[in-house]
């Protein structure tokens, strides 16, 4: 671990000011950052501790949505009464992630910004454009079981590992950010992550010093909410593929559909065309397959992850079937 | 006084059964349990040693070649950095189990990615780790072989055997099976990573480490350093799991000793989890071809087992995957073929029941395929093929319990509820049942132990034997308490110190029966000493609750003698090993659910029935079996060392990505231990149990997957992608 400075921020202004320094990084739960520092994958020169910023509340907003403080832990959020009642897809997604111990430490902001689990990213002996821009991508042609089938580039094929963010994306969340200038702005989660393209090291639209202060959820959606995660063991493994679905059926037809996917792309993935193909339709296997065709039209395997294409299709069809089933 | 016994004849006396204390076999708690669960048992790296400094190994980041330069000076100038050790005596490979001599040394030549190159020593662990990570090492790279597909295989002559004519048997068989399975490499994945603290006093080395077989490890260290084993004292009172990876020494031991000598102060070296993956033993991947020839009723007429495994150039160990095939089932025509590739991958060695863990598993899959082909129920098929004597040698079995295990397991589990493959469904889940047999060769090893009876009527058991989490402290305490008629609180067991008499070490499931026999012999001698003081025959003596009863007279053991009575027990294997085939047996029954949409498998029920001679402690034996079956779940579904095809490096080198089963993967596991005495195995009639419960466990799961889904995965692990490939489109 490289030697580093430690600064404890007592107010957001403190935090963004300190984080403006060259090589500074925020530390929240530390469950991702500390591991990466020990391995030499991330080497911040200053750690700005934001855990004293009192961003740990879940509040109802004026428009009856939720404002989730950036430091609310994954455990607290999953167990929050309003979340369990109104945003079940989020609660389920959180509980499908990591382990109880990790969720007790992990925070909302940290979860959004956790880094990929690409094993080549984790090994400093391997060329990796995300860790060391311009060095190459050793994952391509290597062991690619965890890698992306959508949205990858010739420079990086890594996936985003979060479960929480997938559910938030389906819920249409926004990310509240405070900049170094002290101004707050809200970025739609759908606009928050960037695709790797030529610069996989740049993962979001955040600027240096930007602090996530909260995640905003719109008012509770209508319809059925489902989170399904497929992984290599029953618990404590990252998604090979996951789906968050919020679907409303009205008079026998699909009235609204929000679908987000994890484990298959460099960012939580949403495809408006696939959703649009469902709207107004009478639920049927053919309709679901058509949505899957649209979603996966550009899907590309990397060898070891080829199976994710079929898996995602099956998963989507199954989740849509469940979401549109008439309840007795 | 010394009591020596060579196992040249069966011991039908079964003296332990005559004893009165009532400890043997009971589910006694481990005496070391409270220390372990409260975090106060001291593991290798936890000793508080004065003036300690810390070493971290730097690794090769090329797979094959030669080190041309180590830029030590760059980091020696940093504050707190004490030394960069590049001594030629540093280990290149870890030592194989039971080696008793130095493994391959000289890390300046690189045989595999991640190989240790140098040790960086600093005042703090953090400084050492940072410096080791940034130590510049220059290489001259050479070409290597990284995939079995690219390797030429050796076919060692002494590892082939055949009798009869298997090809003819296959051609004439009413039913035949000719299938090839593959299993991936495995990591031992012990909870405690390897660690060592070395301190010198003049020419004497004290090394606190985490090892399984101290009497061999001591010689391995001495030979690596070029010193006399008498100058080495090893301390391993607590070991947080070994599973083969600590049978022999690993690079941290020699590195710590060399650095401590150079610096004249104690040095600790701990491996990171990643280093455990890269530099300690892996189980070789295997390819295995099984041929079975059977008559119309499923009686085997022929059996063939060919295995292809790998190791580094120059290593003699080869995963003995075919080890149980010579004796598990009958059939006149038999053939064993064995092939080894030389690969530049991390050293291959013993990991969790080397041989049978993967070999019996694949054989039991093939038997399931034969059951399907013949239409004979899988349990019946096994029953029909149980041999009366070892079919390869004609020798009698020392005991044979497979039929009992089949009957017991099938009844308890409700095997008669099994249906045709692919016919039971609950929602998205396809339900199936599967079974497999377990077997493992049994070993008795030389062992010594000392037992002392103090003047105040307490016993102390002493041996360099280790307790690697298995329950050695408990069972040795029980044997001594039983033989000497002492309650538990009057027996103390001291382990893991080479100053004590050399036990067998822990490995190959032989520790309990071997070192337990040494303790038994020492106690038998003490009983004779007590009898002599009471003027009676040893066999007329009843010892119970600290009292000796002879000829209607009761005498307190406390005060029986002015001083301490001491005896050393010494057991050696003998003729019974050659005269009989000794093995343990068992069965596994499982119920699985396979998701028709995603291919995910969940094990719903698991039943194991095992016989391993006398069970010394029902709780620790049961725990061993639960552990083995849990590893069976891992082998069946998730565990796999993934090697990069281009340089052989282990890609998933931590426990987040190398998937051991977690709680949610493990259902209620039921374990039944059959009552048995094996008089040929040891004077305490016990056999090895630890490894038995993984040998075939994976097959019970993959056979159940077939019964559930109709998908036969022949490439372990049966991960969801491989099952998906065989499922229909999910319409159900
Ligand atoms: C073994 C293991 C298994 C796991 N399994 C899963 C899983 O199945 N699913 C899943 O979703 N996750 C999983 N995780 C990841 C876990 O969810 C994340 O580590 C956690 O959410 C990160 O939160 P944190 O608060 O600890 O972040 P930190 O480690 O403190 O920070 C992570 C990153 O976010 C930045 N950051 C943190 N807070 C802010 C803020 N407010 N503003 C700006 N930047 C910020 C930090 O600078 C850092 O770069 C797993 C982790 C481990 C170790
Ligand atoms: S896939 Fe991305 S993260 Fe992985 S090695 Fe390539 S560039 Fe790095």
Write the layout of secondary structure elements.
The complex is a heterodimer of chains A (328) and B (732).
Chain A: E1 5-8, H1 12-19, E2 24-27, H2 33-38, E3 46-49, E4 58-60, E5 66-69, H3 74-79, H4 81-86, H5 88-95, H6 100-105, H7 108-112, H8 119-122, H9 164-170, E6 174-178, E7 184-188, H10 189-192, E8 211-217, E9 224-230, E10 241-250, E11 253-262, E12 269-270, H11 272-276, H12 285-296, H13 307-324
Parallel strand pairs in A: 1-3, 2-3
Antiparallel strand pairs in A: 4-5, 5-8, 6-7, 6-8, 9-10, 10-11, 11-12
Helix pairs in contact in A: 5-9, 12-13
Chain B: E1 2-7, H1 33-37, E2 53-59, E3 65-70, H2 72-76, E4 81-85, E5 109-110, E6 116-122, H3 125-134, E7 137-141, E8 153-154, E9 161-163, H4 166-172, E10 175-183, E11 186-187, E12 195-201, E13 204-209, H5 214-225, E14 232-235, H6 251-263, E15 267-270, H7 273-279, E16 282-283, E17 286-294, E18 300-311, H8 325-328, E19 333-342, H9 356-374, H10 378-384, H11 402-413, E20 425-426, E21 429-441, E22 447-453, E23 459-462, H12 472-484, E24 491-494, H13 511-534, E25 542-544, E26 547-550, E27 553-556, E28 565-573, H14 575-579, E29 583-595, E30 601-611, H15 618-637, E31 669-673, H16 697-709, H17 720-724
